[in-house]
From TrEMBL:
GO CC annotation terms, alphabetical: M band
Organism: Athene cunicularia (Burrowing owl)
Domain of life: Eukaryota
Domain Ig-like as annotated: residue spans: 24-113, 313-404
CDD domains: FN3, Ig_Titin_like
Protein name, UniProt field: Titin
Length: 1172
């Protein structure tokens, strides 16, 4: 249509109204067109956009099997989604997708590779087996887990055990020889493949494998017999069965002129008859042993021609001496004679000249190789000639065997019967002229009695005994005598009856008032049966009735108890066998009294040592112990003010002395002692004198070093030292006496109350007169021994050059401000009170007057605790430890340094705690410190006199180390000549504040790193770069301890792993993260039309939000009793980010190294009462 109007129409062809069809199609993204690689345990997610009209029907298969059961499949008109969760190695393979609608059909596939441990090796089988080794062979697993097999692990177990043991963990081939197996044992084996993802599933032998090999061949193969069509073979067992039971033997034959061995048969015995052979042919035979491991090597026989063997019959009589058999009447005779001959001869026996009539008692038997004549319970009438003949087609031979039956009983040598039965002893006798016969028993000839009947004929005799008892048992001897000599036979008769009396005497020993010991011997006659036990009875001699002591005594000794003191007893013992209780054996009467009496009283006690609360009492052994060893002494005491004797010892005393304690000071005590043995307690000993409980005091010893200090014409000045021994009491004074040299009359020249000082000037003396002078020390006990002044000093003026004047200098010229110095005309005295280790050293004295000067020195060694260690240094500091070093003290206190004590304290606390109380080195590493805290340390030396002065660190030490590298570095911006970087703070600052960061760069192709920035914040812009040049950057953190390792800018690509592909919520928990690893997460939304762009999270480290707490404060004791303490402490400075739920308290003794835990559950409070 236009302005002019409507134009001509266009005619549209007829159109059929129907749905438009489109052939199915799909589009695989680049990742799916390659092989899809997924780690085991994660999810296989295959998302394929599809199209087609109508909407195609989608089917997924793998290896021809539908995936509906294994996978979650979602199909829409625009995509198909297949999800396999927690995939394993078996989910690897080719996933086939088929799209089909009315317009057509299209298929596609996705190859999926699952990274997992490998599957089991296949075709595992033993290849070579010996008696001590097995070689296994296998093929590689069908599924290698998406990674090359690195090695195989071979394991074995005995079939009787359940646990496998490893043979090798690094087998590189598909076969392995396992040595050192136990021969004959059965084993299971399994093989596991290993790749970079771990050890896979095992392949195991289905049946146990026996460590064995083919046996050795039999030692020989013997031809035993040959007929016209058969051969009899025999062979011994092989020397070695190869470790497995021989199951049979294979026989093979080879005809002469052929090289082929023909299988004949398999047998389980050691012989075989090979039949159906060709007559007059020559054969060689071989035998092989067979076990589960196979056949042995063959053992061949000699060649043999198959034909009938002919041979004249022959008897082998080498086993019969002079063709005569001699036996006793009643014996069984068996005559076996080997018979030779081919063909086998027919053998016949005769008695004299009559064919031998076979009966049950007398008969013969012919076997393949021998003839056997048997005569049971032979009689005299069996004596005579026994001809035998053997006949075959070759001929006949004959021999004669003589049988002689000797005189003997008609019964066996020993006749056994029960009590009350009748026994008969019969004998046939031969001899010419007829012998005379006599029966004896025990050297006594037997005669007829009412009980015993003897019948004698010419050539026989019988003895009959009625109503037999045990006494009738024994040896009965029959003697036959004629002029030609005599013959004897002994019949042993055993009558089963109750036993006879035990063999005496019945001994009674170890008799006391309450018990005794019985002993005896077994009966000579046990009644023909084992003695089971004994019955012991007793009776008092004043009574007739016996009472049982023990009814089943297994031994020949018994201890009898519960006797009444003073009673007289008789004992009897009877043996018991299965036929009853035997006759008794009685003892002599015995009186139940002790063979001993209480001991005599001990000797009079004496006291040898006394203190204010104890005395040592001694006494002599009693004259007699009463016949029984003394087992105890009883010590008793009595206070002078009391009447009652008190026992002093609660425990047993066997010594002849005892320390009595718990006495009251000032009280007087007397003592007595009683001895005790098995019979009782003795009479008391005579009482001791009274002794007073007080510390013992003795007179003092003589004064030390008496000497003359000065003299004048009317006086002598003397001095002395205190006595070495003060007698246990304080020295109260001294007394001085003088006498003329030739006289013994001594005169006291000191005041009556004594002299307190240790020097004295004796005055009013005659000029030029010599004197003897002696000095006494006195205490509360009186005057001690005197000390005599050497020589006989004279009262005269002394002309002496000057001797000593104190220089007043000590140790390197130090002034003796601490010393008290007293100088007189005759001596100088230097006193340093309350000395310590610093007073050790060299004391120099100088004396000077107009005549000259003189010097001397005295070395003084003060025994004290040591001085402070020297040069304490901090050697090494980490975030949890500090290493200390020091030098030994200059002053060791006069004794070797035993050890050092190391202590620490936090700078916020005042109290030190001990780190190590027994350090034997001059260095120590103090660990388990709280990171970032400041500590003081000190060290003290210890010798045998105690712990010395401490040396302390002058400044506190901060427990820290170099920081960790900075966190992840992010590239913020890049221009043509600059780069902007940012990074995260280090995960750990080393316990000390980060002071700054050092940024370094390296241009491509260079190995040198250069510092390009030093900043205090976590970002930096580096300028002045060359456009087009490639750079690498790294950042290091710095604190007061140093510079961390650098963190380099990561320019590598990132691999993203699917956490979940089907999340309907907006939250999800990510599991299976590795502690300490840094992760980033990204999320995309998805609808039917596809997937959105990703939203990426900040990097985050998988770690706990808290740490272990720091140590509590040093514990201190707030309350102490004799058996308990209340211990208190402060909370830790750092709780690790989580509330403190409790404390654990331990203790140890000073000299111990073991800590013992005091609480069973955490202590919620900061104090705890410990007991015990």
């Amino acid at each position: 249509m236009n302005a002019a109007g409507v134009g001509e129409p266009a005619i549209i062809p007829s159109v059929e109204i129907k749905d438009r069809e489109e052939i199915p199609d799909f589009e695989l993204d680049a990742e799916l067109r390659r092989t899809l690689v997924v780690r085991a345990g994660l999810t296989i997610r295959i998302f394929v956009p599809i199209k087609g009209r109508p909407t195609p029907e989608v089917t997924w298969t793998k290896d021809g099997v539908s995936l509906k059961g294994r996978a979650s499949i979602e199909n829409t008109d625009s995509f198909t989604l297949l999800i396999v969760t927690e995939c394993t190695r078996y989910d690897a393979g080719k996933y086939l997708m088929t799209l089909e609608n009315a317009a057509g059909k299209k298929t596609g596939f996705v190859n999926v590779k699952v990274l997992d441990t490998p599957g089991p090796p296949i075709n595992l089988k033993p290849r070579e087996i010996t008696k001590d080794s097995i070689t296994l062979q296998w093929d590689m697993p069908l599924i290698d887990g998406g990674s090359r097999i690195t090695n195989y692990i071979v394991e074995k177990r005995e079939s009787t055990r359940k646990a496998y043991s490893t043979v090798t963990t690094n087998c590189q081939k598909c076969s392995f020889r396992i040595p050192n197996l136990a021969e004959g044992c059965e084993y299971y084996f399994r093989v596991l493949a290993e790749n970079e993802y771990g050890i896979g599933e095992p392949a195991e032998t289905a049946e146990p494998v026996r460590a064995s090999e083919a046996p050795s061949p039999p030692e020989s193969l013997n031809i035993m017999d040959v007929t016209r069509n058969s051969v009899s073979l025999a062979w011994p067992k092989p020397e070695h069965d190869g470790g497995s039971k021989i199951t049979g033997y294979v026989i093979e034959a080879q005809r002469k002129g052929t090289n082929q061995w023909a299988h004949i048969t398999t047998v389980k015995t050691l012989d075989c008859v090979v039949k159906n052979l060709t007559e007059n042919e020559e054969y060689t035979f071989q035998v092989m042993a067979v076990n589960s491991a196979g056949r042995s090597a063959p053992r061949e026989s000699r060649p043999v021609i198959i034909k009938e063997q002919t041979m004249l019959p022959e008897f082998d009589l080498r086993g019969i001496y002079q063709k005569t058999v001699i036996a006793k009447a009643g014996d069984n005779i068996k005559i076996e004679i080997p018979v030779l001959g081919r063909p086998r001869p027919t053998v016949t026996w005769k008695k004299e000249d009559q064919i031998l009539k076979q009966t049950q008692r007398v008969n013969y038997e012919n076997t393949a190789t021998a003839t056997i004549l048997t005569i049971n319970e032979c009689k005299r009438s069996d004596s005579g000639q026994y001809p035998l003949s053997a006949k075959n087609i070759v001929g006949e031979v004959s021999e004669v065997i003589t049988v002689q039956i000797k005189v003997d009983a008609k019964y066996k040598d020993t006749l056994v019967l029960k009590a009350g039965e009748v026994f008969r002893l019969e004998a046939d006798v031969s001899g010419r002229p007829p012998p005379t016969m006599a029966w004896t028993k025990g050297e006594k000839e037997l005669e007829d009695t009412a009980k015993l009947e003897i019948k004698i004929a010419d050539f026989s005799t019988v003895l009959i005994n009625k109503d037999s008892s045990r006494r009738d048992g024994g040896a009965y001897t029959l003697t036959a005598t004629n002029p030609g000599g005599f013959a004897k036979h002994i019949f042993n008769v055993k009558v089963l009856d109750r036993p006879g009396p035990p063999e005496g005497p019945l001994a009674v020993s170890e008799v006391t008032a309450e018990k005794c010991v019985l002993s005896w011997l077994p009966p000579l006659d046990d009644g023909g049966a084992k003695i089971d036990h004994y019955v012991v009875e007793k009776r008092e001699t004043s009574r007739l009735a016996w009472t049982a002591v023990a009814t089943e005594v297994p031994l020949t000794k018994l201890k009898v108890t519960k006797l009444l003191k003073g009673n007289e007893y008789v004992f009897r013992v009877m043996a018991v066998n299965k036929y009853g209780v035997g006759e008794p054996l009685e003892s002599e009467p015995i009186l139940a009294v002790n063979p001993y009496v209480p001991p005599d009283p001990p000797k009079t006690p004496e006291v040898t040592a006394i203190t204010k609360d104890s005395m040592v009492v001694c006494w002599g052994h009693p004259d007699s112990d009463g016949g029984s060893p003394i087992t105890n002494y009883i010590v008793e005491r009595r206070d002078r003010t009391g009447l009652r004797w008190v026992k002093c010892n609660k425990r047993v005393v066997t010594d002849l002395r005892y320390k009595v304690s718990g006495l009251t000071e000032g009280h007087e005590y007397e003592y007595r002692v009683m001895a005790e043995n098995a019979a009782g307690v003795s009479e008391p000993s005579p009482t001791s004198p009274f002794y007073k409980a007080c510390d013992t005091v003795f007179k003092p010893g003589p004064p030390g070093n008496p000497r003359v200090l000065d003299s004048s014409k009317s006086s002598i000045t003397i001095a002395w030292n205190k006595p070495i021994y003060d007698g246990g009491s304080e020295i109260t004074g001294y007394m001085v006496e003088i006498a003329l040299p030739e006289e013994d009359e001594w005169k006291i020249v000191t005041p009556p109350i004594g002299l307190k000082a240790t020097s004295f000037t004796i005055t009013d003396l005659k000029e030029n007169q010599e004197y003897k002078i002696r000095i006494y020390a006195m205490n509360s006990e009186g005057l001690g021994e005197p000390a005599l002044v050497p020589g006989t000093p004279k009262a005269e003026e002394r002309m002496l050059p000057p001797e000593i004047e104190l220089d007043a200098e000590l140790q390197h010229g130090e002034s003796l401000d601490r010393a008290s110095i007293e100088s007189t005309s005759s001596y100088t005295l230097l006193i340093v009170e309350n000395v310590n280790r610093f007073d050790s050293g060299k004391y120099i004295l100088t004396i000077e007057n107009s005549s000259g000067s003189k010097s001397a020195f005295v070395n003084v060694r003060v025994l004290d605790t040591p001085g402070a260690p020297q040069d304490l240094k901090i050697k090494e500091v980490t975030k949890s430890s500090v290493t200390l070093t020091w030098e030994p003290p200059l002053i060791d206190g006069g004794s070797k340094i035993k050890n050092y004590i190391v202590e620490k304290r936090e700078s916020t606390r005042k109290a030190y705690s001990t780190v190590n109380a027994n350090c034997h080195k001059t260095s120590w590493k103090v660990d388990s410190l709280q990171e970032g805290c400041n500590y003081y340390f000190r060290v003290l030396a210890e010798n045998e006199y105690g712990i010395g002065l401490p040396v302390e660190t002058s400044e506190s030490v901060k427990v820290s180390e170099r920081p960790l590298p900075p966190g992840k570095i992010t590239l913020l911006d890049v221009t043509r000549n600059s780069v902007s970087l940012s990074w995260e703070k280090p995960e750990h600052d080393g316990g000390s504040r980060i002071l700054g960061y050092i940024v370094e760069m390296q241009s491509k192709g260079s190995e040198k790193w250069s510092t390009c920035a030093t900043v205090k914040v976590t970002e930096a812009t580096i300028t002045g770069l060359i456009q087009g040049e490639e750079y690498t950057f790294r950042v290091s953190a710095q604190n007061e301890k140093g510079i961390s390792d650098p963190r380099q800018l990561d320019t590598s690509t990132t691999t993203w792993h699917i956490v979940s592909a089907t999340v309907a919520r907006t939250t999800i928990k990510a599991c299976r993260l590795k502690t300490g690893c840094e992760y980033q997460f990204r999320i995309a939304a998805e609808n039917r039309y596809g997937k959105s762009t990703y939203l990426t999270s900040e990097p985050i480290i998988a770690q706990y939000p808290f740490k272990v707490p720091g140590p509590p404060g040093t514990p201190f004791v707030t309350n102490v009793s004799k058996d308990s303490m209340v211990v208190q402490w402060n909370e830790p400075v750092n709780d690790g980010g989580s509330k403190i739920i409790g404390y654990h308290l331990e203790r140890k003794e000073r000299n111990s190294i073991l800590w013992a835990k005091l609480n069973k559950t955490p202590i919620p409070d900061t104090k705890f009462k410990t007991t015990g």
